[in-house]
Amino acid sequence: MFIKRNWKKLVLFVPIVLFRKIDVIFYDLKIDMPVAELFIQNMFSGNPDRQQTHLTIVMFGMVEIVLFSLLFGMYIYKDLFGSGVYIIIRQTNRTKWFIQRCTELFISAVLFAIITAGMTFIISASCSKYGNYYTSIKIFLLTTVLSALFAFWQTLTINLTAIRFESTIGFIANYITLTFLSLLAVSHEKIPIIKNFPLLLRLNPVSNVTINWASEWGETLAPVLYFAVLIILTIFIGVRKINRLDISLQNNESAA
Amino acid sequence: MFSLNVENVQKKIKDALILDKINLCFSSGKIYGLMGKNGSGKTMLLRILAGLVHPTSGKILWNGTGKPRIGLIIENMGLYPEFTGFENLKLLAGINKIIADEAIRDAITRVGLDPADKRTLKKYSLGMRQRIIIAQAVMEHPDLLLLDEPTNGLDENGVSLMREMLLEEAKRGAIVVIASHSTEDIEFLCDEKYRMASGCLAGWK
After folding, report:
1. Is the model's pLDDT at A124 over the cut of 90?
2. A29 touches B at CB < 8 Å
3. Is residue A105 part of a domain?
4. Domain with B165 in it: what CATH number?
């Protein structure tokens, strides 16, 4: 049922990725760049260290994630004003329902990340002159995990903001915040307070996806941990909200 | 035998008083009717009985074993349009797993639809959608059947089919509560009738 509900939205990313990488696909010559380097460049349109210098580059690199959040931003919210009501009354408690919806959203985010990063990796591998796949696969895996976690967290946040206020506010507030965080991430060297306190940059979700923190494998897992904590906190807030919510009282803008 | 008691239930949204000191007792095997104009509070009372909305004060007490099984129809609340009728009901039945596929097919047949229909709900007419919603409400033999405007979109045949079903459900022992604009539905079906106005219960005239 879950696949039937969501496969069209996920398959949509195949032509989107192909279209965005069309210049790389039709580039005649093999590129003199290792696969990992080329993959990161194709994924985020920046340099291999993921040290972005321009906001436009970061935003361009996040087009797929933003599109994912647009497609799934009402996944949980919509259920509260439509078919979900008939599911909720059959559950022993609302927390169980919410956790199930979060799990489905997370699976969608993982599939999304596998499709987008996987296709970008295949395109990069076929265009590179080199064949060192070990490092490349490590970077591919980390990028996939981070993209999935970020996409899930961002989309969950939109859903919860929409439940608290309404869907338009959910989307607008989230994209304004995303733009602001991206701006902070790319101009951190120009903002004294962030330059002097690098921890502030590390607390920024956008910089956890787009900037490479360390060369050590163990330390590169820090952003994964960061997102895990962020997601647990968001789910905790969501559970509290859902249990206190008067369901089906708000307008039926999304009723199926 | 079981019953549901509504004790001093009040609901406020911001400063507006939607329900005021509602006291009711629902017994198994009976059909109850709530009638009133738009905004009188009847739908809100149904949502509180279903556990979808929390009362500001007061209590809902269930005198029966365990948690009541609830069958619900809420106006304007559809099922998944991208699934067939059977798939929608199977998804819902999968939550508590108390009925098998055969019972789902029976429920669909009971409302006059074909369980083998491969069309998705978005291709159903309004009346067919309402019938499938009625089927989801009754398929698990609920203890408490809460219906908000159940005859919406139904043709004459559908209305009489639904009335028959509700009488059967009450005979089985369920508590049936109907909120409707239709005096005819309420008069024809209900053992006890209440008129609601400005969030309060008034007598039936």
Report:
1. no
2. no
3. yes
4. 3.40.50.300
Within a domain: A255: no
Convert the pLDDT of each residue in A57-101 to its tens digit: 556 667 888 899 999 998 998 888 777 789 888 888 899 889 999
A89 touches chain B (CB under 8 A): yes
Q: pLDDT tens, A131-172? A: 767 778 888 888 889 889 999 999 999 999 999 988 889 899
Q: Are B79 and A246 an interchain contact pair (Cβ–Cβ within 8 Å)?
A: no
With an 8 Å Cβ cutoff, are A248 and B47 in contact?
yes
- pLDDT at A135 (0 to 100): 75
Indicate the number of domains in chain A: 1
From residue A215, alpha-carbon distances to A48, A220, A227, B157 in Å are 12, 7, 19, 72
Return the number of CB contacts < 8 Å for A and B.
Answer: 70
E strands present in chain A:
none
* Contact flag B81-A256 (C-beta cutoff 8 Å): yes
Which burial class, exposed, middle or buried, applies to A131 when counting CB atoms under 10 A from its CB (0-12, 13-18, 19+)?
Answer: exposed
A122 lies in some domain: yes
Range of the domain at A117: 2-244
The answer to the question of residue A249 being in a domain is: no
| pLDDT beneath 50, residues of chain B | none
Q: Does A90 touch chain B (CB under 8 A)?
A: yes
Domain count, chain B: 1
| Strands of the B200-202 sheet, one edge to the other | B70-73, B144-148, B175-180, B31-36, B192-197, B200-202
